[in-house]
Amino acid sequence: MGVIDAWEKILGFFGVDISLVKNKTENTYQLKNTLVEFIGIEGAEAKGHGSRRDILFLNEVNQRISYETFTQFFMRTTECTFVDYNPCASFFLLEKILPTTPHVFIHSTYLDNPLLSEVERANIESRKDDPKFASWFHVYGMGLLGRFEGAIFQNWRYGEMDDSLVSLLGLDVGSRDPDALVRCAVDSKKKIIYADELLYQNNLSTKSLIEALSRLVRHSDVIVADSANRQTIHDLREARFQIKPAVKGPGSVRGGIKRMLGYEIVITERSKNLAYEFSNYCWADKDTKTPVEGADHLCDALRYAFMFKTGYSRGIRVVDVSGLKYEDWSKYRM
């Protein structure tokens, strides 16, 4: 929607009557002999196998777009492809496409944007000299490639799930924050964690969350969920999902992270929000091993599932509440 909003402002600048050129149902615009079409790729990857186009523009190509999906759209474009992205980590475009494809690289930052509001500019520059945001400013201020130096998880890479392993799901329930769901499998012998992002969405009501889970998981799947939101867990159990609440306590985050750092983490290419969190999840205080809050919803969901899968660790317990009344859960909160 942000891209369409910007596009319509451009049309308005050139005096185009949007009502005469826009098909609201199809999200297309007919400008004389040119058809401009907007596609939300996530969930519509099959469109890459269909129609051809002269010019392709992919917005935030490193978010929710896999190498396979990119290739399908790219191969069916006859003249030119434009892409944009924030260089928070290396990904398929830098590793597989640019080394073998003729291209022009445009490096721009907030300083190149004359339309940026003073409030946004001030917010960016307020982090310029803050040591905690040195890596953030390197990427989002200066536009330079980097997996943040201070990122906690440096032990991850893109790959495929090992379907031979039994998997379960981790769920971090948001209120103002996103609801985050990830599928997790663990190879204890090879010390590998496999993760596949399934859901990362803001402003979901409990009813909408239940509908989303019904599309994404089977009712027989075990879901290890954040136990802080007890009412939502209760509602999910009432909807017949197999919820195992992860009960958190002192040292649970620190202990879980320490354990996960002993594994290699392999995430699917579509797990773009998880990749973003891994690239931005830093220590707020290295001495106390306290992570920065914010970019941690999928990280937390993965930790819940991993800790459940690998058993008890200091500071975290998983309690089966199937035989408890809702009001009795409080005694398990630490």
* Share of β-strand residues: 15-25%
DSSP helical segment count? 11
Overall tally of domains: 3
Shape: globular
* CATH topology description of the largest domain: Nucleotidyltransferase, domain 5
Helix content: 25-40%
Q: Major β-sheet, in short? A: 8 strands, mixed
End-to-end distance, in Å? Answer: 42 Å
Named CATH architecture of the largest domain: 2-Layer Sandwich
What does this structure look like?
- The protein is an alpha/beta fold.
- It has three domains: 2-110, no CATH class; 111-141, no CATH class; 156-332, 2-Layer Sandwich (Nucleotidyltransferase, domain 5).
- It has helices at 2-13, 18-21, 67-75, 92-97, 118-125, 134-141, 206-216, 230-238, 252-260, 272-280, 297-310, and strands spanning 22-23, 28-31, 34-37, 53-58, 77-83, 156-158, 167-172, 179-187, 192-201, 222-226, 242-248, 264-267, 283-285, 290-291, 316-318.
- Helix 9 (252-260) crosses helix 11 (297-310).
- The model is unreliable at 312-334 (pLDDT under 50).
Outline:
This protein has 334 residues and is of the alpha/beta class. It contains 11 helices and 15 strands.
